[in-house]
Write a structure and sequence with these properties.
Length: about 220
């Protein structure tokens, strides 16, 4: 609903806005990445204390691991809905991808700068040199990346042909389906500064290689 969009809307590191002001009024604590990184990640006990003594509902919005947990707990909680599983099957069809590749673009500046496409080209060529019939599932929020890799390496990549938008319910279901497909591969080659890459690998309990330029 319109009210839900106001209450739960969040733009990372945005200075101010109607949603932020409203959240600060009805929630305590209302925490975002900055405070979670600065305080709770190093002192998790402070989070429990703040919540238990607040007297209000708490709102935590983050893509970061800010509280200690076991991967097995994460996998037990994170369950894909039937429509997501069905969509995943539609995307891959009868093909079983050997590897997964997640290339984060659009608004993630760190992923774009530190995980350039050239690194993924190199990974692809190495995999093809080992097995020319290798199948790689490509998850990305960029239609341009899909077109680039599919034309550069014909027949190698499997990907969602419906588009790359994440702004609609259909797009969100597709994103979850792509995460599920990635988690079922043998290894994921992911993007720097992307929780999507990390979550996919954690859910599948599989290796994750972050394609990152040297500092």
């Amino acid at each position: 609903s319109g009210m839900d969009k106001i209450v739960y809307s969040f733009r990372r590191f945005a200075g101010c806005g109607l949603s932020r002001l409203w959240q600060m009024h009805i929630f305590f604590p209302r925490e975002d990445d900055r405070r979670l990184v600065e305080l709770y990640r190093s002192h998790p006990g402070s989070l429990e204390s703040d919540i238990s003594h607040s007297g209000k509902d708490s709102l935590i919005i983050s893509c970061l691991s800010f509280f200690p947990y076991e991967d097995t707990l994460y996998r037990s909680i994170f369950q894909f809905a039937p429509d997501v599983q069905e969509r995943a099957s539609e995307i891959v069809g009868s093909v079983t991808p050997d590897f997964g590749m997640h290339i984060r673009r659009t608004d993630n500046i760190k992923s774009i700068s530190d995980s350039p496409l050239e690194l993924f080209y190199e990974v692809t060529e190495n995999l093809l040199s080992e097995n020319e019939s290798v199948k790689i599932f490509l998850a990305t929020d960029s239609q341009t990346v899909k077109e680039d890799l599919s034309s550069r390496y014909p027949g190698t990549f499997i990907y969602n042909t419906s588009g790359a938008s994440r702004d609609t319910r259909t797009g969100m279901i597709d994103a979850a389906a792509e995460m599920l497909i990635l988690s079922r591969s043998r290894k994921i080659f992911g993007s720097f500064w992307s929780s999507f890459s990390e979550a996919s690998a954690c859910l599948g309990n599989i290796p994750l290689v972050i394609c990152k330029t040297e500092s």
